[in-house]
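During the no-cost extension, the postdoctoral fellow (Dr. R.K.) reprocessed legacy sequence entries with the updated structure-token encoder. One reprocessed record is reproduced below for audit purposes.
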Amino acid sequence: MEDFKKVSFWLFPLLFIIFWITKETIFALFLGIVLGFTLQNIARFLSIKTNLPYYLFVFLLYLFIFLFISFLFYSLFKVITTEFPSFVSHLNEILKSYNLKIEKEETFKKLDILNIFQSYFPNIFYFLYSLFGSFISVILVFVISLYIAFSPNLEREIFSYIRNEEKKEEIFNLWFRIKRKLAFWILGQIILMFSIGLSVYFVYALIFNLPYKFLVSLTSGILEAVPILGPIVSTLIAVFIAVIEKPEAIFPLILAFFIIQQLENHFLVPLVMKGTVQLNPILVIISILIFGKLFGFWGVISVLPILVILTEIFNYYFKEKNEIK
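Re-encoded structure tokens follow.
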């Protein structure tokens, strides 16, 4: 017993230090597992319903994700590079009212797409690299998910190491329940993305009547899945277009986007998560604030699936099993 206490005295602080140093990688690994099993379940469901090969649907799912993200980035890049000269010109007019001016305006107007890309891409890449912490961690999410999605027998192989049949069945049942709850969490995320996209369309298109309505609304909805960075990028894109089309709407537009995000963070997310995965709204808000403060981007994006898993484990071992006894 004394030896165990001595080992614990050094082991737990050591484990905590290791976790803190590698937290981004651990969170990325966790998200890759969640994404991999989610796509695995979708592909398996489609395969059963259509009698087509499982691997075909995995390939099509990843192809769809890749093409969709590529289309979104291409559309945004095209809009920004096309409208950039007008943006500089209109911004200069706005700044003149504050006795400010962008130097060499004519130079900006003459820039072509290649020059803009070469000039601004390194800064944008550095910003994204700093925000995500490590580009390797982002890649790790997709590598892990790809490995899991293309390994439909992975669960069976893992459970085969458990020799105790009764224990194996118990763990398998718990794992099945966790996967089902994670599927509901994904459904909740889709509802949130749709809600934000619809809200942005209502504000951006119907109230302010600005161009590129569908693209901005779609981007805002998709970026809802990316905490911290998502709302910032969505707002910047909307403001970029407002500077060109309706400078007087800049500050009201920023305020409208801010209100949408606050309502989403403090009301919509807790309510949707309560309806889909039965998470207490207060618990959701507190957890998001704590994980965001401690772990930043990766903590915020991982906190809800972690809560789902921990809640399901707690309900199974401390509620239902005790009720059976």
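The CA atoms of residues 101 and 216 lie 28 Å apart. DSSP finds twelve helices and no strands in the chain. The remaining legacy entries will be reprocessed before the final report is submitted.
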